[in-house]
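can u do me a favor
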Protein backbone atom coordinates (compact mmCIF):
# COMPACT_ATOMS: atom_id res chain seq x y z
CA UNK A 1 0.00 0.00 0.00
CA UNK A 2 1.47 3.37 -1.03
CA UNK A 3 0.49 6.79 0.23
CA UNK A 4 1.82 10.32 0.76
CA UNK A 5 3.19 12.00 3.89
CA UNK A 6 6.11 9.75 4.88
CA UNK A 7 8.12 11.32 7.69
CA UNK A 8 11.82 11.98 7.49
CA UNK A 9 13.46 9.95 10.25
CA UNK A 10 16.78 11.45 11.42
CA UNK A 11 19.83 9.29 10.81
CA UNK A 12 22.05 8.22 13.69
CA UNK A 13 25.55 7.83 12.25
CA UNK A 14 28.50 6.45 14.17
CA UNK A 15 31.78 8.30 14.49
CA UNK A 16 35.25 6.81 14.22
CA UNK A 17 38.00 5.99 16.75
CA UNK A 18 40.84 3.51 17.69
CA UNK A 19 43.76 3.10 20.03
CA UNK A 20 46.70 4.00 22.16
CA UNK A 21 48.22 2.14 25.07
CA UNK A 22 46.29 2.15 28.35
CA UNK A 23 47.57 4.38 31.06
CA UNK A 24 49.37 2.90 34.01
CA UNK A 25 48.71 3.75 37.63
CA UNK A 26 46.22 1.16 38.75
CA UNK A 27 45.59 1.15 42.49
CA UNK A 28 46.94 -1.86 44.38
CA UNK A 29 45.10 -3.44 47.33
CA UNK A 30 46.37 -2.48 50.77
CA UNK A 31 47.68 -5.22 53.14
CA UNK A 32 47.64 -5.43 56.90
CA UNK A 33 51.06 -5.36 58.71
CA UNK A 34 52.17 -8.60 60.33
CA UNK A 35 51.27 -8.80 64.05
CA UNK A 36 53.84 -11.47 65.04
CA UNK A 37 57.47 -12.50 64.51
CA UNK A 38 59.37 -15.78 65.15
CA UNK A 39 61.98 -15.42 67.95
CA UNK A 40 65.44 -17.07 67.92
CA UNK A 41 65.96 -20.25 69.96
CA UNK A 42 66.98 -19.81 73.68
CA UNK A 43 69.68 -21.99 75.40
CA UNK A 44 68.13 -24.41 77.90
CA UNK A 45 70.08 -23.21 80.90
CA UNK A 46 68.89 -19.60 80.55
CA UNK A 47 65.30 -20.44 80.10
CA UNK A 48 64.10 -19.96 83.73
CA UNK A 49 65.58 -16.46 84.07
CA UNK A 50 64.37 -15.29 80.66
CA UNK A 51 60.99 -16.82 81.39
CA UNK A 52 60.66 -14.74 84.58
CA UNK A 53 61.52 -11.52 82.77
CA UNK A 54 59.15 -12.39 79.98
CA UNK A 55 56.40 -13.12 82.46
CA UNK A 56 56.94 -9.85 84.27
CA UNK A 57 56.68 -7.74 81.08
CA UNK A 58 54.26 -9.85 79.05
CA UNK A 59 51.14 -7.85 79.90
CA UNK A 60 52.67 -4.49 78.94
CA UNK A 61 54.15 -5.93 75.77
CA UNK A 62 50.82 -7.52 74.90
CA UNK A 63 49.02 -4.23 75.48
CA UNK A 64 51.56 -2.49 73.22
CA UNK A 65 51.07 -5.10 70.51
CA UNK A 66 47.29 -4.79 70.66
CA UNK A 67 47.57 -1.00 70.57
CA UNK A 68 49.88 -1.11 67.55
CA UNK A 69 47.56 -3.53 65.78
CA UNK A 70 44.52 -1.39 66.59
CA UNK A 71 46.23 1.76 65.28
CA UNK A 72 47.31 -0.04 62.12
CA UNK A 73 43.85 -1.45 61.58
CA UNK A 74 42.25 1.96 62.17
CA UNK A 75 44.65 3.55 59.68
CA UNK A 76 43.85 0.93 57.09
CA UNK A 77 40.12 1.33 57.65
CA UNK A 78 40.27 5.14 57.45
CA UNK A 79 42.44 5.10 54.34
CA UNK A 80 40.35 2.31 52.88
CA UNK A 81 37.15 4.29 53.34
CA UNK A 82 38.81 7.30 51.72
CA UNK A 83 40.01 5.44 48.65
CA UNK A 84 37.11 3.05 48.07
CA UNK A 85 35.51 4.19 44.79
CA UNK A 86 31.94 5.37 45.08
CA UNK A 87 29.93 4.30 42.06
CA UNK A 88 26.23 4.48 41.44
CA UNK A 89 23.83 1.57 41.53
CA UNK A 90 22.28 -0.17 38.52
CA UNK A 91 21.42 1.56 35.24
CA UNK A 92 18.48 3.91 34.95
CA UNK A 93 15.28 2.37 33.64
CA UNK A 94 15.03 2.08 29.89
CA UNK A 95 18.76 2.45 29.28
CA UNK A 96 21.01 -0.31 27.92
CA UNK A 97 23.63 -1.95 30.11
CA UNK A 98 26.97 -0.81 28.69
CA UNK A 99 30.05 -3.01 28.65
CA UNK A 100 32.44 -2.56 31.57
CA UNK A 101 35.62 -1.79 29.60
CA UNK A 102 38.15 -0.71 32.22
CA UNK A 103 41.06 -1.74 30.00
CA UNK A 104 41.70 -0.97 26.37
CA UNK A 105 39.49 -3.46 24.47
CA UNK A 106 41.54 -5.31 21.88
CA UNK A 107 39.57 -8.51 21.32
CA UNK A 108 36.52 -8.91 19.10
CA UNK A 109 33.51 -10.80 20.44
CA UNK A 110 32.17 -10.93 16.87
CA UNK A 111 32.94 -9.53 13.44
CA UNK A 112 30.51 -8.92 10.55
CA UNK A 113 31.40 -8.20 6.93
CA UNK A 114 28.68 -5.60 6.44
CA UNK A 115 29.90 -4.63 2.97
CA UNK A 116 29.61 -8.22 1.75
CA UNK A 117 26.30 -8.67 3.55
CA UNK A 118 24.54 -5.48 2.49
CA UNK A 119 26.31 -4.21 -0.64
CA UNK A 120 28.16 -7.11 -2.29
CA UNK A 121 28.34 -5.33 -5.67
CA UNK A 122 29.99 -2.20 -4.21
CA UNK A 123 33.73 -1.89 -3.47
CA UNK A 124 34.07 -2.17 0.34
CA UNK A 125 35.93 1.14 0.55
CA UNK A 126 32.86 2.86 -0.93
CA UNK A 127 30.38 1.47 1.59
CA UNK A 128 29.20 3.71 4.41
CA UNK A 129 27.32 2.03 7.26
CA UNK A 130 24.33 3.65 8.99
CA UNK A 131 23.18 1.85 12.17
CA UNK A 132 19.97 2.75 13.96
CA UNK A 133 19.71 3.40 17.67
CA UNK A 134 19.64 0.10 19.55
CA UNK A 135 16.25 -0.90 20.98
CA UNK A 136 15.95 -4.07 23.03
CA UNK A 137 19.46 -4.96 21.88
CA UNK A 138 18.52 -4.81 18.18
CA UNK A 139 20.15 -2.56 15.58
CA UNK A 140 18.93 -2.05 12.03
CA UNK A 141 21.80 -1.38 9.62
CA UNK A 142 21.64 0.18 6.18
CA UNK A 143 24.33 1.41 3.79
CA UNK A 144 24.99 4.14 1.24
CA UNK A 145 27.73 4.78 -1.31
CA UNK A 146 30.47 7.12 -0.11
CA UNK A 147 32.16 9.11 -2.89
CA UNK A 148 34.78 10.66 -0.61
CA UNK A 149 37.83 8.47 -1.05
CA UNK A 150 41.51 9.30 -1.51
CA UNK A 151 42.14 6.59 -4.10
CA UNK A 152 41.30 7.56 -7.70
CA UNK A 153 40.52 4.00 -8.73
CA UNK A 154 38.23 3.59 -5.75
CA UNK A 155 36.47 6.85 -6.61
CA UNK A 156 35.70 5.54 -10.06
CA UNK A 157 34.30 2.34 -8.59
CA UNK A 158 32.25 4.32 -6.08
CA UNK A 159 30.68 6.46 -8.81
CA UNK A 160 29.77 3.38 -10.79
CA UNK A 161 28.23 1.81 -7.69
CA UNK A 162 26.24 4.98 -7.02
CA UNK A 163 24.80 4.83 -10.54
CA UNK A 164 23.88 1.14 -10.23
CA UNK A 165 22.22 1.79 -6.88
CA UNK A 166 22.79 -1.70 -5.51
CA UNK A 167 22.87 -0.65 -1.84
CA UNK A 168 19.26 -1.13 -0.85
CA UNK A 169 19.64 -3.94 1.69
CA UNK A 170 18.83 -3.63 5.39
CA UNK A 171 19.90 -6.06 8.14
CA UNK A 172 18.62 -6.54 11.67
CA UNK A 173 21.53 -7.37 13.99
CA UNK A 174 21.66 -8.49 17.61
CA UNK A 175 24.25 -6.10 19.06
CA UNK A 176 25.29 -8.43 21.86
CA UNK A 177 25.98 -11.52 19.76
CA UNK A 178 26.46 -10.19 16.23
CA UNK A 179 23.77 -12.58 14.98
CA UNK A 180 22.02 -11.36 11.84
CA UNK A 181 18.30 -12.04 12.21
CA UNK A 182 17.45 -11.16 8.63
CA UNK A 183 18.47 -9.20 5.54
CA UNK A 184 15.87 -7.49 3.34
CA UNK A 185 16.44 -5.92 -0.08
CA UNK A 186 14.35 -2.77 -0.60
CA UNK A 187 14.83 -2.90 -4.39
CA UNK A 188 11.35 -4.35 -4.97
CA UNK A 189 9.74 -1.95 -2.51
CA UNK A 190 11.52 1.26 -3.54
CA UNK A 191 13.29 0.65 -6.87
CA UNK A 192 14.18 4.33 -7.32
CA UNK A 193 16.04 4.69 -3.99
CA UNK A 194 19.07 7.00 -4.15
CA UNK A 195 22.27 5.07 -3.43
CA UNK A 196 23.92 8.24 -2.10
CA UNK A 197 21.15 9.05 0.38
CA UNK A 198 21.39 8.14 4.05
CA UNK A 199 18.98 5.33 4.94
CA UNK A 200 17.56 6.20 8.35
CA UNK A 201 16.22 3.25 10.32
CA UNK A 202 14.18 2.88 13.49
CA UNK A 203 13.47 -0.30 15.44
CA UNK A 204 9.95 -0.23 16.94
CA UNK A 205 9.31 -3.44 18.91
CA UNK A 206 5.97 -2.10 20.21
CA UNK A 207 4.69 -2.16 16.63
CA UNK A 208 6.62 -5.29 15.61
CA UNK A 209 8.33 -3.32 12.86
CA UNK A 210 11.55 -1.82 11.56
CA UNK A 211 10.98 1.48 9.74
CA UNK A 212 13.40 2.45 6.96
CA UNK A 213 13.52 5.96 5.52
CA UNK A 214 15.08 6.37 2.07
CA UNK A 215 15.28 9.20 -0.44
CA UNK A 216 14.12 8.56 -3.98
CA UNK A 217 14.05 10.50 -7.23
CA UNK A 218 10.40 11.27 -6.47
CA UNK A 219 10.80 12.28 -2.82
CA UNK A 220 11.05 10.53 0.51
CA UNK A 221 9.76 7.03 1.10
CA UNK A 222 9.34 4.97 4.23
CA UNK A 223 9.16 1.19 4.33
CA UNK A 224 7.84 -0.87 7.23
CA UNK A 225 9.52 -4.27 7.62
CA UNK A 226 8.36 -7.11 9.85
CA UNK A 227 10.52 -7.25 12.97
CA UNK A 228 10.55 -11.06 13.04
CA UNK A 229 11.22 -11.95 9.43
CA UNK A 230 12.06 -8.71 7.60
CA UNK A 231 9.17 -8.98 5.10
CA UNK A 232 7.86 -5.73 3.66
CA UNK A 233 4.53 -4.73 5.21
CA UNK A 234 3.80 -1.30 3.72
CA UNK A 235 5.35 1.62 1.87
CA UNK A 236 4.54 5.30 2.40
CA UNK A 237 5.81 7.90 -0.07
CA UNK A 238 6.22 11.60 0.49
CA UNK A 239 5.59 14.41 -1.99
CA UNK A 240 8.14 16.97 -3.10
CA UNK A 241 5.51 19.71 -3.12
CA UNK A 242 4.22 18.81 0.37
CA UNK A 243 7.13 17.41 2.40
CA UNK A 244 6.50 15.71 5.72
CA UNK A 245 9.26 16.06 8.28
CA UNK A 246 9.49 13.90 11.40
CA UNK A 247 9.42 16.19 14.44
CA UNK A 248 9.53 13.54 17.17
CA UNK A 249 9.03 9.86 17.83
CA UNK A 250 8.04 8.36 21.17
CA UNK A 251 7.40 4.64 21.34
CA UNK A 252 5.30 3.76 18.31
CA UNK A 253 4.01 7.30 17.67
CA UNK A 254 5.47 9.78 15.19
CA UNK A 255 4.73 13.48 14.96
CA UNK A 256 5.12 15.00 11.48
CA UNK A 257 5.17 18.61 10.36
CA UNK A 258 3.55 18.94 6.94
CA UNK A 259 4.01 21.80 4.48
CA UNK A 260 6.43 24.56 3.54
CA UNK A 261 7.37 27.95 4.96
CA UNK A 262 3.94 29.60 4.94
CA UNK A 263 1.02 28.99 7.27
CA UNK A 264 0.83 25.40 6.05
CA UNK A 265 3.99 24.73 8.07
CA UNK A 266 1.77 24.78 11.15
CA UNK A 267 -0.02 21.63 9.98
CA UNK A 268 0.87 18.45 11.82
CA UNK A 269 -0.07 14.80 11.69
CA UNK A 270 0.19 12.02 14.24
CA UNK A 271 1.10 8.62 12.84
CA UNK A 272 1.23 5.20 14.45
CA UNK A 273 4.18 3.02 13.40
CA UNK A 274 1.73 0.18 12.86
CA UNK A 275 -0.04 2.08 10.05
CA UNK A 276 2.11 4.62 8.20
CA UNK A 277 -0.45 5.40 5.52
CA UNK A 278 -3.38 6.53 7.69
CA UNK A 279 -2.56 9.29 10.20
CA UNK A 280 -4.26 8.98 13.56
CA UNK A 281 -4.79 12.74 13.64
CA UNK A 282 -4.18 15.82 11.50
CA UNK A 283 -4.51 19.41 12.63
CA UNK A 284 -2.93 22.81 13.13
CA UNK A 285 -0.94 24.42 15.92
CA UNK A 286 -0.52 28.09 16.79
CA UNK A 287 2.41 29.82 15.13
CA UNK A 288 5.46 29.63 17.37
CA UNK A 289 4.34 26.41 19.06
CA UNK A 290 5.08 22.74 18.40
CA UNK A 291 2.83 19.89 19.56
CA UNK A 292 4.30 17.95 22.47
CA UNK A 293 4.44 14.19 21.98
CA UNK A 294 3.78 11.63 24.72
CA UNK A 295 3.74 7.84 24.54
CA UNK A 296 -0.05 7.88 24.40
CA UNK A 297 -0.80 11.01 22.38
CA UNK A 298 0.09 14.61 21.72
CA UNK A 299 -0.59 17.98 23.38
CA UNK A 300 -1.46 20.72 20.87
CA UNK A 301 -1.75 24.51 21.29
CA UNK A 302 -4.38 25.89 18.91
CA UNK A 303 -6.28 29.19 19.10
CA UNK A 304 -4.62 29.86 22.46
CA UNK A 305 -6.00 26.71 24.05
CA UNK A 306 -4.43 23.30 24.72
CA UNK A 307 -5.85 19.93 23.76
CA UNK A 308 -4.77 16.36 24.27
CA UNK A 309 -5.05 14.07 21.23
CA UNK A 310 -5.32 10.35 21.99
CA UNK A 311 -2.68 8.42 20.05
CA UNK A 312 -4.97 5.42 19.49
CA UNK A 313 -8.22 7.07 18.42
CA UNK A 314 -7.21 10.59 17.37
CA UNK A 315 -9.95 12.01 19.61
CA UNK A 316 -9.11 15.43 21.07
CA UNK A 317 -10.29 16.89 24.34
CA UNK A 318 -9.54 20.23 26.05
CA UNK A 319 -6.56 20.30 28.38
CA UNK A 320 -7.71 23.12 30.62
CA UNK A 321 -8.17 21.51 34.02
CA UNK A 322 -5.98 23.32 36.56
CA UNK A 323 -4.79 25.92 34.04
CA UNK A 324 -5.32 29.61 34.13
CA UNK A 325 -6.56 31.50 31.12
CA UNK A 326 -3.86 32.49 28.63
CA UNK A 327 -1.40 29.87 29.88
CA UNK A 328 1.11 28.76 27.27
CA UNK A 329 3.45 25.78 27.12
CA UNK A 330 7.10 26.80 26.83
CA UNK A 331 8.97 23.50 26.83
CA UNK A 332 8.50 19.87 27.80
CA UNK A 333 10.24 16.56 28.39
CA UNK A 334 9.06 12.98 28.51
CA UNK A 335 9.71 10.62 31.41
CA UNK A 336 11.85 7.45 31.32
CA UNK A 337 10.58 4.16 29.94
CA UNK A 338 7.37 3.12 31.65
CA UNK A 339 6.47 6.69 32.61
CA UNK A 340 3.76 7.95 30.31
CA UNK A 341 3.70 11.44 31.81
CA UNK A 342 4.73 14.62 30.07
CA UNK A 343 6.56 17.24 32.13
CA UNK A 344 5.94 20.79 30.96
CA UNK A 345 6.96 24.35 31.71
CA UNK A 346 3.98 26.71 31.55
CA UNK A 347 3.54 30.44 31.94
CA UNK A 348 0.37 32.44 32.48
CA UNK A 349 0.92 35.96 31.17
CA UNK A 350 3.79 37.59 33.06
CA UNK A 351 3.52 35.38 36.10
CA UNK A 352 6.27 33.05 37.27
CA UNK A 353 6.60 29.85 35.21
CA UNK A 354 5.45 26.56 36.66
CA UNK A 355 6.49 22.97 36.08
CA UNK A 356 3.68 20.44 35.79
CA UNK A 357 3.38 16.70 35.36
CA UNK A 358 0.70 15.73 32.84
CA UNK A 359 -0.47 12.12 32.87
CA UNK A 360 -1.14 10.07 29.71
CA UNK A 361 -4.76 11.24 29.69
CA UNK A 362 -3.72 14.88 29.75
CA UNK A 363 -4.62 15.57 33.40
CA UNK A 364 -2.20 17.32 35.74
CA UNK A 365 -0.72 15.25 38.55
CA UNK A 366 1.08 18.19 40.20
CA UNK A 367 2.27 21.75 39.58
CA UNK A 368 5.26 23.50 41.18
CA UNK A 369 6.33 27.16 40.69
CA UNK A 370 9.92 26.96 39.41
CA UNK A 371 11.92 29.16 37.04
CA UNK A 372 12.90 26.78 34.24
CA UNK A 373 14.16 27.17 30.69
CA UNK A 374 14.62 23.47 30.01
CA UNK A 375 13.64 20.12 31.52
CA UNK A 376 15.12 16.67 31.72
CA UNK A 377 13.70 13.66 33.54
CA UNK A 378 15.56 10.82 35.29
CA UNK A 379 14.37 7.86 37.33
CA UNK A 380 14.11 10.03 40.44
CA UNK A 381 14.16 13.68 39.34
CA UNK A 382 12.47 16.16 37.09
CA UNK A 383 15.50 18.36 36.46
CA UNK A 384 14.56 21.99 35.86
CA UNK A 385 17.42 24.02 34.36
CA UNK A 386 17.22 27.72 35.15
CA UNK A 387 16.52 30.16 32.27
CA UNK A 388 20.19 31.20 32.20
CA UNK A 389 21.21 27.50 32.48
CA UNK A 390 23.50 28.22 35.44
CA UNK A 391 21.62 26.16 38.05
CA UNK A 392 19.51 23.03 38.23
CA UNK A 393 16.66 22.03 40.55
CA UNK A 394 15.54 18.47 41.23
CA UNK A 395 11.78 18.01 41.63
CA UNK A 396 10.36 14.76 42.94
CA UNK A 397 8.76 12.93 40.02
CA UNK A 398 5.94 11.72 42.23
CA UNK A 399 4.65 14.96 43.74
CA UNK A 400 6.78 17.84 42.42
CA UNK A 401 8.47 18.68 45.74
CA UNK A 402 11.81 20.51 45.46
CA UNK A 403 14.41 18.01 46.63
CA UNK A 404 17.54 20.09 46.00
CA UNK A 405 19.04 22.89 43.91
CA UNK A 406 22.62 23.25 42.72
CA UNK A 407 24.58 26.19 41.27
CA UNK A 408 26.49 24.84 38.27
CA UNK A 409 28.95 27.71 38.07
CA UNK A 410 28.17 28.64 34.48
CA UNK A 411 25.96 27.83 31.51
CA UNK A 412 25.27 24.12 31.53
CA UNK A 413 23.13 21.38 30.08
CA UNK A 414 21.93 18.09 31.48
CA UNK A 415 23.33 15.16 29.47
CA UNK A 416 21.38 11.90 29.65
CA UNK A 417 24.06 9.23 29.17
CA UNK A 418 22.99 5.83 27.78
CA UNK A 419 23.63 3.20 30.44
CA UNK A 420 24.17 5.71 33.26
CA UNK A 421 23.53 4.83 36.87
CA UNK A 422 20.18 5.84 38.32
CA UNK A 423 22.14 7.58 41.10
CA UNK A 424 23.83 10.05 38.73
CA UNK A 425 22.86 13.28 37.03
CA UNK A 426 25.42 14.13 34.36
CA UNK A 427 25.85 17.78 33.36
CA UNK A 428 28.22 19.60 31.03
CA UNK A 429 29.08 23.09 32.30
CA UNK A 430 31.08 25.77 30.51
CA UNK A 431 34.10 26.93 32.51
CA UNK A 432 36.66 29.63 31.75
CA UNK A 433 39.14 26.96 30.65
CA UNK A 434 36.63 24.87 28.67
CA UNK A 435 33.70 22.50 29.22
CA UNK A 436 33.56 20.18 32.22
CA UNK A 437 31.58 16.96 32.62
CA UNK A 438 30.33 16.42 36.17
CA UNK A 439 28.28 13.73 37.87
CA UNK A 440 25.89 15.03 40.52
CA UNK A 441 24.54 12.72 43.19
CA UNK A 442 20.82 12.46 42.50
CA UNK A 443 20.04 12.31 46.23
CA UNK A 444 21.40 15.77 47.14
CA UNK A 445 22.99 17.35 44.05
CA UNK A 446 26.54 17.13 45.40
CA UNK A 447 29.25 16.85 42.79
CA UNK A 448 30.63 13.33 42.86
CA UNK A 449 33.23 13.53 40.10
CA UNK A 450 34.26 15.94 37.35
CA UNK A 451 36.53 15.73 34.33
CA UNK A 452 37.52 18.22 31.63
CA UNK A 453 36.18 17.86 28.10
CA UNK A 454 37.61 19.05 24.83
CA UNK A 455 35.58 21.27 22.50
CA UNK A 456 34.83 18.29 20.23
CA UNK A 457 34.14 15.75 22.98
CA UNK A 458 30.77 14.05 23.41
CA UNK A 459 29.66 11.69 26.17
CA UNK A 460 28.30 8.59 24.45
CA UNK A 461 27.78 5.88 27.08
CA UNK A 462 28.41 4.81 30.66
CA UNK A 463 28.65 1.57 32.56
CA UNK A 464 28.54 1.35 36.35
CA UNK A 465 32.22 2.34 36.73
CA UNK A 466 33.23 3.77 33.34
CA UNK A 467 32.21 6.84 31.31
CA UNK A 468 32.96 6.83 27.58
CA UNK A 469 33.74 10.02 25.65
CA UNK A 470 34.15 10.38 21.88
CA UNK A 471 36.27 13.04 20.21
CA UNK A 472 35.47 14.09 16.65
CA UNK A 473 37.87 16.65 15.21
CA UNK A 474 36.24 16.62 11.77
CA UNK A 475 39.19 15.05 10.03
CA UNK A 476 41.88 17.37 11.36
CA UNK A 477 43.33 14.56 13.49
CA UNK A 478 42.45 10.94 14.31
CA UNK A 479 39.15 10.59 16.08
CA UNK A 480 39.25 8.88 19.48
CA UNK A 481 37.23 7.30 22.24
CA UNK A 482 38.38 7.58 25.84
CA UNK A 483 37.25 5.78 28.98
CA UNK A 484 37.24 7.46 32.41
CA UNK A 485 36.69 6.05 35.86
CA UNK A 486 33.21 7.14 36.96
CA UNK A 487 34.33 7.71 40.56
CA UNK A 488 37.72 9.45 40.31
CA UNK A 489 37.61 10.86 36.78
CA UNK A 490 40.94 9.15 36.06
CA UNK A 491 41.45 8.33 32.42
CA UNK A 492 41.63 4.57 31.98
CA UNK A 493 42.50 4.37 28.28
CA UNK A 494 42.29 6.18 24.97
CA UNK A 495 42.07 4.67 21.51
CA UNK A 496 42.34 6.23 18.06
CA UNK A 497 41.24 4.85 14.71
CA UNK A 498 40.49 5.77 11.13
CA UNK A 499 37.34 3.68 11.43
CA UNK A 500 34.01 4.66 12.96
CA UNK A 501 33.00 3.74 16.47
CA UNK A 502 29.59 3.73 18.11
CA UNK A 503 27.84 2.10 21.04
CA UNK A 504 25.20 -0.24 19.66
CA UNK A 505 23.16 -0.37 22.81
CA UNK A 506 25.83 -1.19 25.39
CA UNK A 507 28.29 -2.73 22.93
CA UNK A 508 31.29 -0.84 21.57
CA UNK A 509 31.31 -1.51 17.82
CA UNK A 510 34.00 -0.34 15.42
CA UNK A 511 33.38 -0.24 11.66
CA UNK A 512 36.64 -0.17 9.70
CA UNK A 513 37.35 1.30 6.28
CA UNK A 514 36.18 -1.87 4.53
CA UNK A 515 32.78 -1.76 6.32
CA UNK A 516 33.63 -4.65 8.61
CA UNK A 517 32.03 -4.27 12.05
CA UNK A 518 33.51 -5.72 15.25
CA UNK A 519 32.31 -5.63 18.82
CA UNK A 520 35.32 -4.85 21.01
CA UNK A 521 35.57 -6.52 24.41
CA UNK A 522 38.01 -6.83 27.30
CA UNK A 523 38.77 -10.47 28.08
CA UNK A 524 40.91 -9.71 31.15
CA UNK A 525 40.49 -12.37 33.84
CA UNK A 526 37.90 -11.66 36.50
CA UNK A 527 39.57 -10.52 39.72
CA UNK A 528 42.39 -8.54 38.08
CA UNK A 529 42.84 -4.94 39.11
CA UNK A 530 42.23 -2.06 36.77
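np, heres the sequence
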Amino acid sequence: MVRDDAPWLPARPGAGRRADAPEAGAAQPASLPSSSRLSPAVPHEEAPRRRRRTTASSSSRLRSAYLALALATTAVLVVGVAVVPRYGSGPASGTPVADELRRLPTDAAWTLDLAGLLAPDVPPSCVHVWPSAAVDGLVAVGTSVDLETDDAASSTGCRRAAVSGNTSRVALVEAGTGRVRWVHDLAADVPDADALAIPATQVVPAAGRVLVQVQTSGGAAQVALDLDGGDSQEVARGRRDLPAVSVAAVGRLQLRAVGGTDDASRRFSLVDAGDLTEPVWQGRADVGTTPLLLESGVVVEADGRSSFVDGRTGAARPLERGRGRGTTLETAAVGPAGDGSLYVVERAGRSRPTVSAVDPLGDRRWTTPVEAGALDVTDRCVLALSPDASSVTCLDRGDGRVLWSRDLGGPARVVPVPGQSRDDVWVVAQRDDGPELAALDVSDGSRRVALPLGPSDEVVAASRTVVYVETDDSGTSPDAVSAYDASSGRRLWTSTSTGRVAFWGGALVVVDDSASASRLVDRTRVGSTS
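The two ends are 56 Å apart (CA to CA). hope that helps!!
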